[in-house]
Amino acid sequence: MVRIKRAYDEASADDGCRVLVDRLWPRGVSKERAELDEWLKDVAPSPKLRTWWKHDPERMDEFALRYRAELDSVAATQVAVAALRALVAEGVTTLVYGAKDPHVNHARVLAEYLAE
Fold this sequence. Notes:
InterPro entries: YeaO-like. By secondary structure, the chain is an alpha/beta fold.
């Protein structure tokens, strides 16, 4: 089971394995407060894609297509996705992200990608 949760939300016991899926550390969150088990930077969108997207809701569909293409084709990303799939196979995994919007973020796309 894959869940998503903002880095600014409190960790809970039912989060299972908590994995930060951003390239950048969430501003203002201490390592202790984050309570992470892993940080897989390479599953995050490339800086070029993230800059193009700008978390614009109107670009969400196109972003999802481009991000999925990166997940399928970039070598470092494929290695990180394999590591993430291994964690998911072990049990509940929560993808932790820093974006403000719970619907317009890459973690939601990544969770759907992993579920397929």
